[in-house]
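User: Can you help me understand a structure? I only have the sequence.
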Amino acid sequence: MIDDTLTETMPPVRPWPALDLTGTDFDPVLTELMREGPVTRVQLPNGEGWAWLVTRYDDVRRVTNDPRFSREAVMATTVTRLAPHFIPDPGAVGFLDPPDHTRLRRSVAAAFTAKGVERVRDEARAMLDELVDELLKNGPPADLTAAVLSPFPIAVICELMGVPSGDRHRMHLWTQLILSSAHGKEVSEKAKREMSAYFSDLIGLRENSTAEDVTSLLGAAVGRGEVALEEAVGLAVLLQIGGEAVTNNSGQMFYLLLTRPELAEQLRDEPRTRPRGIDELLRYIPHRNAVGLSRIALEDVEISGARIRAGDPVYVSYLAANRDPDVFPDPETIDLSRNPNPHVAFGHGPHYCPGGMLARLESELLVDALLDRVPGLKLAVPPDQVPFRKGALIRGPEALPVTW
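Assistant: Let's start by predicting it. Here is the structure, written out as tokens:
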């Protein structure tokens, strides 16, 4: 129920421009919004109107786990948004609510369980070792992004998805075009159509497969009539794109470690602290620009004193939630021994990132390999000369020049 004593005074609508931030700088606009209150209103560069923004940790978890806030309802309206080329695809898992969302996620769950992720650990480590071997063979200086941080997650997600190795390069090109607004709406949409057509063909060929990769699981689910081909394709595209986000996340992680060498030394000298340290880095790193996908309130809901009306669009900020001082004491400090650390870097609720466990595995393997095998690793240029991606929805360095 809504408390009738709640004030009807609406917070002002704050413009939230698309900033091309560098390094691990936290968005200054988001900082101001967090100071203004737990629930504010924003207008992003594209779309229409305004939306509520929820920033406190407990409120973010509540909204993302509350069926009264719908992703599916976004399909019927135009919401203010960051990306110029955002067009929801019918049946896409990101815009489904339970039970359809649950049904679709279940079709690939086996690939993303602890057992499913462990299935690729040894092969992932072997692929990473080959990349580091090549890095050391070629000698310094090198671009760590091009040599390791980009090809590694591409190889791992393609392995998990069941994409043949010969198709990895075009998967990478499509993903970069989809994740960037720098090339324009038409280019991004064309890349998404091409990736969708590719997965439609691949899934169709695997309707009788008993393999454990994602496209085989989806093909089998389509063959059993549990999932429509359109739904399976939408999920495959989302998972493929999400798998490459590790490139930018790990780029920021190593930029942070290389610009704060005391953190790298701590992880190098105390290997047992690495899992907890990686969780802290995931909490701290501002891995995206602005916010992700919105939700629509299906009925009037009160959140931290604000009356959100039925039909209102709502965004949550996981970045802000990860800096909530009520949950993370001294949140601006990187404490590699922080415990507990209930960060929401991979989201929360039904739309929790299915690849979160895989991304954590890749981060652990990268930290192990690069800290142990390249002990003298350091930046080859001043920190402010590291180029960061322009117009990217997921933040990260374009290149990471290193030497050793």
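Now, to help you interpret it: The chain has a mean pLDDT of 92. The first strand starts at residue 13 and ends at 15. Let me know which part you'd like to focus on.
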